[in-house]
Amino acid sequence: MNLANNHLFNFLLKFEKTIEAYRGIRAGIALAFPLVIGRLMGYPETGFYIGLTGVFFILGAVGGPYKIRAKTAIATLLAGLLAIGLGTLVSHIIWLKLLMTFLWMFAVGYAAVYGHPGIMTGIVTGILFLFTIHTPPGDIIVAGERMLIGLVGGIWAIALWFIFWPLQPYLPLKKAIADCYTAIADYIQVVLSNSTSLSVSELQQVKGWREKLQLAKDALVINRQGRRGTSEIGQAAVILIQDIEYLMTAISTLIKLSGIHRQNSENITVKILLNEAFKEIVINLENLVQKIRNQPAKFNCDRLKQITQALDEQQSFQRQTIGNQVDAYVSLISLVRLVEALNRLISLLERTYLVVEEMKPTTIPGENNSELSEITILLEKGDQPWFQPLLDNLSFDSAIFRHGLRLAIATSVAVAIATIESIPRGFWISLTVLLVLQHDFGSTFRRFFQRILGTVLGALMTPILTVFIYTQAGLEAIAIVSVSVAFSLLRFNYGVAVFLITVYAVTLEQSRTFENAWIATLRVIATLIGSGLAFMAAFFLFRDRQEQQFWRLATNAISCSRDYFQIVMMSYLSNKSPDYQAINKQRHQNRLAQFNAQISLQKLIDDPQTSQLQIEIALTLMTNLTRFSRAITVLIDQLNDFSGTDPHPELETFVSRIDLGLSQLETSLKSQSPLPPIPDTVTPSQQFQLYLKGLQQKRLIEFANREDETPTRQVLLDYSIVALEIEEMADYLQGMYHAVSQLSWRSQ
Fold first, then answer.
1. Is 126 helix (H, G, I), strand (E, B) or coil?
2. Which band of pLDDT confidence, cut at 50, 70 and 90, is reported for residue 89?
3. Domain extent at residue 219
4. Coiled-coil stretches, from where to where (predicted)?
């Protein structure tokens, strides 16, 4: 059996491409300085606990805008001090100890309502609480002393946060914007390399750039809050973020139009030029990223303009040689539109570059600020009471609420086992539960194995190291280096980080007690017990069924795509001007629905109980749905050149049948009922294509007579690309039907 292809064990080979060196440096310094200073001043025990507390607080360091970082740091410090005080005062009464553990750990899990900052604050305060209740109990004086040590360690850690913050106050916002343009460049390369296959990487890239865009908007909201008028980067940041939307629309159009020529083996010159054009687009996007990050870069669209000019010459050449080849006319029209799209893209890139040049920490001149409407919406969205997320999720229907209960029960059981059985270092059991138990079973399953494997290997390595290095200073040096590297690798691979954290924990304990293999053995035993409790809690307690969750979100995504399709196609079927505000609103809703479905798809794939057939069905549906939406987006871009000519009746028939097909998919998934036969989209599509071919033949005669501006030409310009897209839409609908028809209730 090929391990890399086995779904159950793919997670062991899974690495995130993020190594956080700064976090590792902070953790090492947070531990080293207190240890050294404590020993020099004659208080090694105090120095040890200050350093240990500092490492815990470093774990809670979050990225993003400075305002978020500052709020998270303050909240973590205050909640951490409260955790230390409560843990000290209740640890001697077992029923009160278990009750407070349940309540506190529920709050730790429930803090996820505030997103990543809430999760990290919860983890740090949970660690401090669990660590304290496993120490000898004390009165109010002892609690005060421990809180003072925690305060010093927390302030020391927060000081390290600030020291490593860059001096540029707007760097987080700039970085968030730069990440968006990087994601677009990656998206181009992945989509082009997988243009004819169903690919997980394509969906991941779509999810990736949408996620980066939302992070950039969030960063802009944080930057704008509490300010009047334009901020220091003000209008520039607004324009750059909105240009991402326009850029993705233009690139989607280019990718779709270029597909016609890349699949045509006859016109090699156009294919070569298109490949060069995409390479230049990626290069210019990468140069924009460097400029946004204040790094030297040379931005130049001259090469892209030359390629566009060469494509325009190919267009003129095709006009002269087209003769009576009707099929070649489709290629000619797509080339016309492609040149237009490239020119728009070049203008957009040049405009973006000029805006980047103006991104300085001063107010940008100019009173006209029409782009700020979206920022107003974002600010209104973010301007809600701090307690609103708590109230919104205070229900068993909330996955976060259920996770809080699950975590509270599992850690309470862990504390009870360690207390009743008087297990040495019982803190390690409940700590393992806290760190292994995740919101979904798939992630818990992955951490379960990574935690055990990393701990066992670390426990085996540590006694070998201590044979050669056995002095207190040497053991502490190993601990400092281990925790530094471990914190750097936490997001790279949890299993590798756990291996180093085990070395850190065991050597640090040995530096104080000089026990050897016994400490490592206790670590392994505690990890096995804690991991087992976490696994059972994830499997048996209020388990979220990822399959049900995915199909609910996928159904919503189909519904939003249907609304998106309707509002765009109505612009072609009616004589009214397009309502771009309504279109963009529906596009945003569709993007959000697909983003949520794609996140759920990843969780479904990670769940070890998901069969290969279930993965293939879900992946087929989401890939076709994503490409269906991309086709709609291309039609939005074509509206810029749409003159409003009357549509053919068969186009209206096609639209109504696509709408019916999406409606049937939605109904089947909602009611878990058999899927009706797919509506006939082939006949109206073929009739529409025949209608256009007749016009193309007529247009060839007009070519011969040198007739330029004619009604025939305008109809073909308006609908030739539409005809290409609706053919693909029909194929994507067929793909979605094929996926849903394989679901188990079909045969019931």
1. helix
2. very high
3. 171-366
4. none
Query: Using CA atoms in the order 499, 502, 506, 509, what is the torsion angle rounded to 10 degrees?
Result: 150
Number of neighbours of residue 730 by Cβ within 10 angstroms: 22
Asked which of 483, 512, 540 is the last residue of a domain, the reply is: 540
pTM for the whole thing? 0.67
Q: What is the pLDDT of residues 439-476, one digit of tens each?
A: 888 788 889 999 999 999 999 988 888 778 778 788 88
Give the orientation angle of helix 200-224 with respect to helix 612-638, to 10 degrees: 60
Instruction: Report the distance separating Cα 378 and Cα 505, nearest Å.
Output: 44
- How many domains, in total, are found in the chain? 3
pLDDT digits 0-9 by tens, 38-82: 988 888 889 999 999 999 998 887 765 667 778 888 999 999 999
CA-nearest of 313, 304, 315 to 275 is 304
- Structure confidence by residue, pLDDT tens digits, 482-533: 998 988 888 778 888 999 999 998 888 887 776 666 888 899 999 999 999 9
Q: Burial code of 270-287, b = ≥16 C-beta within 10 A, e = fewer?
A: bbebbebbbebbbbbbeb
Helix ranges restricted to H, 607-676: 612-638, 649-671
Q: Is the pLDDT of residue 206 over 70?
A: no
Please check whether residue 189 is in contact with residue 213, taking contact to mean a CB–CB distance below 8 angstroms: no
Residue 132 CB coordination number (10 Å): 25
Residues 663 and 677 in one domain: yes
d(CA 621, CA 706): 48
> Two tokens at 357?
């040049």
| 329 and 207 in a common domain | yes
Q: How many CB atoms lie under 10 A from the CB of residue 312?
A: 17
Higher model confidence: residue 308 or residue 358? 308
Together in a domain, 519 and 576: no
Longest dimension (CA), the chain: 101
